[in-house]
Amino acid sequence: MLSRRVLARTLGVDAKTVRVDRVELVAEGIEVRLRPRIRFRWRCPHCGARCARYDQRGDRRWRALDLGRTKVHVVAAVPRVRCVEHGVVVAGVPWARHDARHTLAFEQLAAWCAVEMSSSAASRLLRCTWRTIGGIVARAAADLNDEELLDGVTRIGIDEISYRRHHRYLLVVVDHDRRRLIHAVDGANKQTLAAFFDRLGPDRTAAITHVSADGAPWITRMVELRCAQATLCADTFHVVQWATNALDEVRRETWNQVRTRRGRSRKATGEGKVLKDARWSLWKNPEHLSDREHAQLDYIAATHPRLHRAWALKEGLRVAVTAVGPEAIDALDHWIGWAQRSRLASFVRLAQRIRAYRTAIIATIEHRLTNALVESFNTKIRLIARRAFGFHRVDALIALARLTLSGQRPQLPT
Fold it and tell me: 79, 91 in Cβ contact below 8 A?
């Protein structure tokens, strides 16, 4: 009896709920015949209610944790039962999920392997197919406690991430305080964001105090419509990116004016090559420039004052939005006036955009809440997709991302 209890513990099943009838050595490995104890027989797999027996079918097999280098299968005769609520179903067993062909301990180990390594490596280690790993990940993700993820949320970050060509996006929502992924769904648009607020419910939505985003108009409009009490913070990285794009527009205009036109396939020469090679000098922060790049900036200041003025505007906005205190707000207002008087069309348009987002940018300066955490989660999701060399279905990517980043990572079976 003691050896059977030890064997049950080795298989990852509870000896208090399961009885080991016999163990056989077969061609495929070891076959362990189990039987639920009286209290756990004839249970509905959905509601757990004890039901009347409907009929008896043949034996069912489940893959269990390997014993050393030997595969182990669990075998049991499981009847069908008639549940008052769910009708005729196969009776549940304590060692496996309903409709699963692996024990709970095996699936727990497989889910841990899927999070820590690629599906191909996990399938080789566990001696199963990668489709089996995908199915286990989907079942493990379905068991996550979504209500726990959404309870107590006060500061969230919203962003979109491209997961496939032709503009296929995921909507990603992150909890800033607990630093975990709370929502991911296929499609980044007003409908999917509205569905997230519907899932959140009116009470939890009313508890949200801050929302960080990248300044996308559809996110701004939906937050103002569904979560009006929250303070919207514009991500400073994207604000500086707007200025960098405006600077690059001026650089291209200047390059087109001075370049030597020698055909599309010819390399840039003369002054055009100087401006082309100076891109990184214009884009990088001054503290990160090398001596050569400092010399390039000095040359641009002497020969192309219009382009140098655009670079100064970009740097002025970066300093304003990354500063702290009332001086940062004054610097932002001063920059808006400077850009509007710059006579640079791209920066005049940018000044109008900054004026429209002024409240959100000031909120970021005051509360120091950016989308940096959300961007880090986006990078991890891209790493998950890259490690798997892509996914056939987006549901598989979402399931593995939730399992990895939601703060409820699977643990090794003990």
Answer: yes
In the numeric block, which tokens belong to residue 127? 């001696």
Give the pairing of strands 155-164 and 210-213. Answer: parallel
Cα(135)–Cα(107) distance, integer angstroms = 10
Q: What is the mean pLDDT of residues 242-259?
A: 90
Nearest CA to 332 among 342, 347, 317, 352? Answer: 317
CB 141 within 8 A of CB 402: yes
pTM above 0.90, yes or no: no
Mean pLDDT of 274-280: 83
pLDDT over threshold 60, residue 265? no
Strands of the 155-164 sheet, one edge to the other: 180-186, 168-175, 155-164, 210-213, 231-234
135, 35, 150: which is closest to 94 by C-alpha? 35
Q: How far apart are CA 119 and CA 389, in angstroms?
A: 10
**Is the predicted pLDDT of residue 76 greater than 60, yes or no?**
yes
Give the per-residue pLDDT at 2. Answer: 44
Residue 43's DSSP bridge partners are: 50, 92
Instruction: Check residue 262 and give its pLDDT.
Output: 59
Q: How far apart are CA 311 and CA 250, in angstroms?
A: 9
Note whether 105 and 96 are within 8 A (CB). no
Residues whose CB falls within 8 Å of the CB of residue 17, separated by 6 or more in sequence, listed in order: 36, 37, 39, 40, 94
Say if CB 111 and CB 136 are below 8 A apart: yes
CA angle centred on 175, ends 171 and 181, rounded to 5°: 50
Q: How far is CA 361 from CA 230, 233, 355, in A?
A: 14, 6, 9
Rounded CA-CA distance 89/295 in Å is 77
Overall residue count recorded for the chain in this entry:
414
Distances from the Cα of 265 to the Cα of 60, 190, 227, 270, angstroms: 68, 43, 52, 16
Instruction: Supply φ then ψ for residue 265, to 5 degrees.
Output: -90, -10
Q: Is 32 helix (H, G, I), strand (E, B) or coil?
A: strand
Q: Rounded to whole angstroms, how far apart are CA atoms 116 and 72?
A: 24
